[in-house]
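Sanity check record (used in CI):
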Amino acid sequence: MMHTSSPGSEESKKNQTWQLYIKAERLMKGNAEEAKIYLDQAREMNTELGDPLLNALIVESLASYYEQSDKYENALKMANDAIVMFKQLSNSGPIAQLGNANGLISLGNTYTKLGKYKVAIVKPEKAVEILLKLGKTGKVHLGIAFGNMGYAYNLLKEYNKAIELFEEAFKISQMTGYKLEEARSLHNIGAAYYQMGKFQKSVEYCVKSARIFTEIGSKKGVSLSYGVLASSYDQLGHLNISERYHNICIEINHDMKQLSDLAIAYGNKGLFYYKISLAKFLNFSDANESLEKCIEAFKLAIQATDEILASLALDSNKTAFSDKFYRWYDCLTGPFNLLGRSTAALLFLNLGRAKILRHLVYRQVKDKEQDEGQSSFESSWLTIENREEKKRICVLSKDIQLLETNATVLFYNFNDAEILTIWESKSSTSRQELEDNIKKLLEKASVGLPRSYSFFKPSTAFHFENPNAQQLSSENAAEATNDNDVEDKDSRNNYRSPAKKSDTLCDLTKDTRSFLHRVLIDPVKSLIKETKLIIVPQSCIFFAPFSAFIDESGCLLSEKYQIQVISSIHALALSILASRSKKIGGSLFVGNPEVQLPSLLFAEEEVEYISSLLNAKPLTGRMATKSKVIDLMSNASIIHIAAHGQE
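Expected output for Tetratricopeptide repeat 28-like:
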């Protein structure tokens, strides 16, 4: 017997599906995970109903969920899908046009989080064109669009333009009675004034925004406004008030279990104490108590980011998060150095790098008890807690076989004044001067790099967290966009063909390579007694071609030493320990795989020569496919790749 649903039951199911969607929308601001459950249920029920408008709205809300969850690729896809759906529903009238505009606003927000601010401005601009035609129907969303454009301009440091747009958003929110956008606009104006150094005006606006956020029950909004107030009062010299606001921010985010915001709140409190400590230290006063408070706050920030890093999926989102994660390790060098514990500072920096590398490269370890990496991290942390960092350095030195291999380790880092530190030896070379010379060398060697490459981004250490760094999510605006619409030229790769005349290239770069030897090797050459150099660089120094450095006699550094560049001593120690406990696997040699870049000269000859030494067959050209290389890597103990590098 065939069963058919009655019109009444179908209408009931449709109402139920709409109710699930509405419930998800209400929850999205405060409980995105629960909202996602309702959206999935609504989407499943609508598969049978086939309501195209409801389907588009659900997909748009899913874009909002993914944006809030920092899953930007999914957010972009969902928002673009929703825009296509709404365009196909042109006969649905204003609702479809409104949905299209919301999709564009959503895309702008996601691109803002990805740091593509110019694209982030273009998207809501297109939304504004649509919303102005809708009149009163689009008023609320028009205010949201203006606010989001202002936020992107603020990040571009065009503060006056940003404030102008925030004020437009504020006027519209007052007309529509949309309290969340009203509070958000006031907060953003206050944050922009903070960036301009107008701290009293910043306080004026953020006190108003915090009051409205409190009235409407937005804890996240209250936390963000209090964060700006804490920084503003600090700049105005009202330290007790500033400390109180820092503590309230921590309490709010702890209650909400917002780990990312909690880490920032702890980190900002650490920076607050560091500033107090530094002032006392320079005045020859006792700064120990403030420094200990500073270290404790940074450690709590690290614990919060540790939890986030462990839960992230292995994708580009984890890579993007790593910069924020490492920041607090970098900040800890300041108080440790002021306490005379430079070894602890170095150990912490190494620990941070090793953790990032581990989580980026390795899969989750199933057997926690046999997790050598985690055990090593915990040992380092514990020794620093017990002030036994020098013992831990000795253990690591044994692990990496320093004595057996006649190696010297050089650890490079930039201190709080952006001055280069090489282990415990000081150099007067600034980060900018060094970075400029490395860029010059790469340009002469015809090596192009994306402007947005992470190692060339300015350090954020020792500056208060931008109080406008996190924008409040708009209530009804999902976030995502179409990459085909606008190309972000600032983040575009710009690789060029390799230089062909090596002799000419050597002449062109000689002065620069000599300069790099003077600032990176000469200050510590008296410490180098062995035949091998293990170099642990930071930021732009990763791109310095150490082997090609030239000393005062014209001798290459590689002619004197065997050079190894690593990201972290901890990471090297772990790899050595792992190699001792495992059987030697095969070898993998990859040369000049076919990609959308010019052929890399001599790459194939390089791998053919090296592989011949081990009687191995290399993968070159078309044979070196991504899937084949990844498949063979898991069983290889020796891996050599000669190819273009790309972020």
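DSSP finds 25 helices and eight strands in the chain. If this sentence no longer matches the regenerated tokens, the check is flagged for review.
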